[in-house]
Inverse folding.
């Protein structure tokens, strides 16, 4: 019986392996090389005139030129870029609508739900040549830290092919960021249907840096590296943005932020009929009629993926000397019963920001007494009153007006 | 004769398994055979973005 | 670990599950000297798969309970020889599932969505067929089949999703033999099937799909349709045959001789031979539980001539097969087309017998006849499968 196994399986397997190794070294890699014309690195130029100085994009696929407008916004010394997530609504009091409308400031918002630290980091890395000293505001929602970081769907949406290509081709970007992206892609590999050349290249950087030598991943990477030509060195198109930056002229309209804000707050509170937790009626009736409260999980600052992403984003912001500020949103403590569990996280974020002299506006509260009703429209998104407070803060910080 | 035929058959099977694995699952040979093919990356996660 | 998302042979996790089953069974055999009876060990392992990895565990268990209760009730209360009612009762789940599947999603209400969620269980069609064959074969037997034997037979993980369709007596005999069947010979057999199955499904079928099928450009031309037709047929064969081989191999490792499903189908010279070579277990099932009863019934009614009765039975059998695949038009038409092929061949055989000569090929060289037959059969199958694919309509 064992003789049969040896004869019919072990011998053929060894023979097959020998034949494969023989062909692999002699013919195969050369045949592949000869089949493919090795083209030089291709650079695609995307050029255009900046036309958008107000409003927001949920993502950069919304319109054809959204990607270009984003890069231009980062590049422009006169334009403020806001990065946020689900609080970016269509309300006319949002900063990217209000300040341009009232004062002709240039403000562009980017984001919708699931636009979080990693996506923002990738977008900024892609604008590496343009982002030195850029004016940028980050809206941090504590809810991000309740998720498992950025999922693959959000990654596919925000880590655009042009952006990944640009990052991988830019040798001035530190390997640390590329390796981090490679690790992210590798850890979520089975969530992707199809992997691009740039994603594979990021993974290679991560795998090459692994010190664990006995790993299937490393073995597969070694096999790939032994193939010549475009298998080991894929040609990834480089992107060059050629932008014509335009400016608007600010006006010096005086705005009484406090009184406008107060009016909005009173209006919001008086409109609520269905509850006493300061949530607008629509939202309350739709989502909260059956679920009146929620418990938060305390994020572990050592392992929380979103927090690790955020720290790297912060590192990059500091490295590029961006004129950055951070708005920390609150959660509604009437609904979330244990908002104090986020305090260590918020304190840690504040400490990091203070250490590098980065301004922030912390609106997070851990009890109902400290909660300013109307700041949020519901359990976690800014209401018009909240936006006015932010507008005042931003106008003061970036434009010197109170 | 049957024995030799079986050995050859199994050698072929193992060879195809090895070469198939390397070409399909280690190096994505498709990128070499069709270099100009647009890379489409999708997420397998399917959910609706919610405000909540 | 992706719990409740692992259908058979669709991910590495399933293979890991199977390997642990084999290791556990071997462990019980050699270390514990078979202290735990094989059928209980098998039931436990099957339950573990359903409970942890299968997509809808509760639905599946519910289905099995329904089928078991229905079979027992029919056995106890239904004494007639007419098999239509039992078949209808047992195939009610299939009927519900296929009907609900054809309702377009734009008209879905929440009630409909919930209903669909309940009945759309992976492997349902195959399970129902297995139970029908069990009921028909065992309804007159002296002893009632225990739930554990029923459970092992219907929910056996490697064959759960798309077969091969086993028969109860044969399967249970292997289970009764228990650990004794888990010997080197079976492991060798299993290994042979495993390497071939892996090659077919994960290398050849995958290569065809990745490098040919997805690259075919639909420009409506005849060339496109022909290319797609032949490529799809080859893809389907390697994928399905590979899957069957994998299911058989893991059955072998556990000491169970799952019947083969594919045996050089493209060398078939006529439809009758084809269905003994392509999805053989389905062909055998249809023959034993659709064709023969229908023909017997028509004969008892002395309906027309024997050849007419045969052709009607053939046509009905294959049309039913079409419906079994799905209530969509392309499945039904494809089934009917296969029926037509069988009817034509049946009539040809009848004519040859009557006139004592070959009415089509005459005195042609037998080798030539064989080649032409294979060519005709291959292309007819290709066309019918192309319709089955749903690409045309």
């Amino acid at each position: 019986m064992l003789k049969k196994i040896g004869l019919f399986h072990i011998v053929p397997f060894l023979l097959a392996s020998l034949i494969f190794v023989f062909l692999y070294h002699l013919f195969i890699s050369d045949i592949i090389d000869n089949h493919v014309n090795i083209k030089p690195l291709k650079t695609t130029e995307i050029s255009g005139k900046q036309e958008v100085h107000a409003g927001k994009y949920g993502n950069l696929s919304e319109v054809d030129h959204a990607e270009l407008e984003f890069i231009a916004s980062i590049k422009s010394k006169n334009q403020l870029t806001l990065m946020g997530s689900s609080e970016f609504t269509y309300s006319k009091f949002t900063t990217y609508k209000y300040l341009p409308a009232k004062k002709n400031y240039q403000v562009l918002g980017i984001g919708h739900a699931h636009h979080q630290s990693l996506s923002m980091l990738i977008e900024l890395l892609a604008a590496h040549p343009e982002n030195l000293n850029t004016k940028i505001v980050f809206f941090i929602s504590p809810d991000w830290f309740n998720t498992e970081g950025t999922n693959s769907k959000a990654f596919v949406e925000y880590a655009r092919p042009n952006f990944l290509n640009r990052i991988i081709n830019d040798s001035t970007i530190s390997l640390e960021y590329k390796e981090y992206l490679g690790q992210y892609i590798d850890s979520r590999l089975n969530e992707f249907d199809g992997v691009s050349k740039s994603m594979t290249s990021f993974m290679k950087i991560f795998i090459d840096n692994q010190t664990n030598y006995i790993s299937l991943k490393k073995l597969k990477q070694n096999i790939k590296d032994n193939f010549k030509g475009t298998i080991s060195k894929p040609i990834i198109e480089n992107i060059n943005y050629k932008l014509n930056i335009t400016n608007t002229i600010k006006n010096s309209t005086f705005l009484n932020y406090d009184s406008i804000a107060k009016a909005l707050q009173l209006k919001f509170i008086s409109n609520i009929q269905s509850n006493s937790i300061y949530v607008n009626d629509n939202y309350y009736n739709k989502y909260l009629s059956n679920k009146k409260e929620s418990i938060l999980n305390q994020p572990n600052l050592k392992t929380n993926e979103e927090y690790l992403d955020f720290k790297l984003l912060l590192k990059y912001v500091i490295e590029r000397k961006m004129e950055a500020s951070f708005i920390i949103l609150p959660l509604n403590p009437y609904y979330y019963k244990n908002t104090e569990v986020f305090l260590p996280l918020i304190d840690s974020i504040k400490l990091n920001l203070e250490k590098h002299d980065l301004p922030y506006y912390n609106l997070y509260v851990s009890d109902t007494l400290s909660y300013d009703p109307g700041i949020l429209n519901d359990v976690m998104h800014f209401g018009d009153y909240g936006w006015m407070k932010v507008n005042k803060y931003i106008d003061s910080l970036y434009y010197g007006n109170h | 004769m049957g024995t030799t035929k079986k050995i050859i058959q199994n050698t072929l099977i193992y060879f195809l398994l090895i070469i198939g694995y390397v070409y399909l699952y280690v190096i994505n040979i498709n990128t070499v055979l069709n270099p100009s093919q647009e890379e489409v990356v999708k997420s397998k996660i399917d959910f609706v973005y919610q405000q909540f | 670990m992706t719990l409740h998302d692992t259908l058979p042979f669709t991910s590495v996790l399933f293979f890991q599950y199977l390997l642990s089953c084999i290791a556990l069974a071997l462990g019980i055999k050699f270390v514990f000297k078979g202290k735990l009876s094989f059928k209980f060990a098998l039931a436990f392992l099957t339950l573990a798969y359903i409970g942890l990895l299968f997509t809808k565990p509760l639905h599946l268990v519910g289905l099995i309970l329904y089928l078991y209760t229905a079979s027992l009730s029919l056995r106890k209360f239904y004494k007639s020889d007419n098999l239509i009612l039992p078949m209808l009762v047992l195939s009610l789940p299939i009927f519900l599932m296929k009907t609900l599947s054809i309702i377009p999603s734009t008209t879905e209400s929440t009630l409909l969505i919930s209903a669909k969620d309940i009945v759309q269980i992976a492997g349902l069609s195959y399970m129902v067929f297995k139970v029908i064959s069990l009921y028909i074969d065992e309804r007159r037997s002296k002893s009632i089949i225990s739930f554990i034997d029923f459970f092992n037979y219907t929910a056996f993980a490697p064959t759960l999703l798309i077969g091969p369709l086993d028969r109860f007596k044969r399967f249970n005999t292997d289970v009764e033999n228990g650990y004794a069947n888990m010997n080197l010979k079976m492991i060798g057999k299993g290994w042979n099937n495993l390497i071939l199955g892996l090659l077919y499904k994960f290398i050849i079928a995958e290569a065809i799909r990745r490098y040919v099928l997805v690259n075919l450009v639909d420009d409506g031309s005849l060339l496109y349709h022909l290319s797609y037709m032949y490529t799809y047929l080859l893809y389907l064969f390697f994928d399905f045959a590979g899957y069957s081989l994998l299911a058989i191999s893991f059955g072998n490792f556990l000491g169970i001789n799952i019947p083969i499903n594919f045996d050089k189908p493209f060398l078939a010279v006529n439809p009758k031979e084809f269905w003994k070579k392509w999805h053989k277990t389905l062909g055998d099932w249809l023959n034993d539980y659709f064709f023969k009863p229908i023909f017997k019934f028509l004969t008892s009614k002395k309906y027309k001539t024997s050849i007419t009765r045969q052709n009607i039975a053939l046509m009905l059998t294959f049309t039913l097969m079409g419906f079994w695949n799905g209530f969509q038009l392309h499945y039904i038409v494809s089934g009917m087309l296969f029926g037509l092929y069988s009817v034509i061949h049946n009539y040809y055989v009848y004519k040859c017998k009557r006139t004592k000569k070959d009415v089509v090929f005459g005195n042609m060289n037998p080798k030539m006849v064989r080649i032409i037959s294979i060519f005709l059969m291959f292309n007819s199958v290709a066309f019918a499968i192309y319709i089955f694919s749903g690409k045309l309509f």
Notes: Chain B has a mean pLDDT of 76. The longest helix of chain B spans residues 2-26. Helices of chain B lie at 2-26, 30-33. Chain B is about 55% helix and 5% strand.
